[in-house]
Amino acid sequence: MDTPRPLALTMGDPAGIGGELSVRAWLARRTGRPFVALDDPDRLAGIARDLGLDVPVRVVNAASAAGAVFRDALPVLPVRLAAPARPGHADPANAAAVIASIEQATKLTLAGETAAVVTNPIHKSTLYGAGFAYPGHTEFLAALTHTPLPVMMLASPGLRVVPITVHASLRRMLEMITVERIIAVTRVTAAALREYWGIAAPRIAIAGLNPHAGEDGTMGEEEITVIAPAIERLRAEGLDVTGPLAADSMFTPDARARYDVAMGMYHDQALIPLKTLDMHHGVNVTLGLPIIRTSPDHGTAFAIAGQGVADPSSLIASIDLASELAARKETTA
Question: What predicted TM-score, i.e. pTM, was given to this entire model?
């Protein structure tokens, strides 16, 4: 049986926990699909040595070589650091390598050499001096793939959520919520659920913005003037959409059983429930791209970097989900 195409695993910030997560994910090796790290092999070997982990590191010259070595060693396509990484101390000198790792992983996946991109956490403010001009991974990947509307989904075994607006202040978020944006984000979400999750007729729950979903306009009118009209148009397109729903009651066990994805109006409205229910297995998935991209649902965790206590569960879940989505895409193709 042929070895499946590997996943491309990016470096993340070298001062964070990404390197430790990468070596621990290789130790887990739960999926039948290999991954190749786009990282500094000396850094990864040093992390494994310092933490007492039996993780041989093997440099490969091409992603296609990863499958042959993955059972016995962690395959690495070298992306060399400019300065030694110090746990917990971000160094702008290494920003170019972090960016290059993401760019190369994206290029490999667009070319079909790797099946998906799995990204370790980055520290955005450290990257700005190297020309990084994006709010985060999602927007950078959209630029690299010429995607007009990337959509962020957080997925766990028991819940999927999508915020209509993402990294914006509450004040700015109010300006961003329009009928057109709700429709566009929901369309991308529905298409992804059909293509990657195999859900032929996705059930989509859309939250209101105000307390009690506005309570007939007494607590806010956005549900009447913006959200309900968007829902009507989506239903006219044949989508199974409910709402606007009161956000404080749409995440109970009974409520979650009635939909396949919950659409929140803003970042915290959507993400707090998922992170509260299953922080360690939440996966960030970027929808709307021409490639599959997943990522752990946490940051660089500088405070615990290098201590050997970082939990790799979310990265392992990201690898597992990327492998699952890639397999479904390959099968349907």
Answer: 0.92
Which CATH architecture describes the domain 151-281? 3-Layer(aba) Sandwich (3.40)
Instruction: Determine if the peptide bond prior to 244 is cis (ω within 30°).
Output: yes
Contact 314, 297 (CB under 8 A): yes
pLDDT tens for 256-288 read 999 999 999 999 999 999 999 988 888 999 999
Q: Do domains 1-147+289-333 and 151-281 have the same CATH topology?
A: yes
Question: Is 298 one of the annotated binding-site residues?
Answer: no
- 240-245 and 159-163: which strand pairing? unpaired
Q: 167 among the known binding-site residues?
A: yes
Q: Rounded distance, CA 252 to CA 254, Å? A: 6
Please report the sign of the dihedral spanned by the C-alpha atoms of residue 300, residue 306, residue 309, residue 315.
positive
Q: How confident is the model at residue 1 (pLDDT cuts 50, 70, 90)?
A: very low
Q: Is 212 annotated as a binding residue?
A: yes
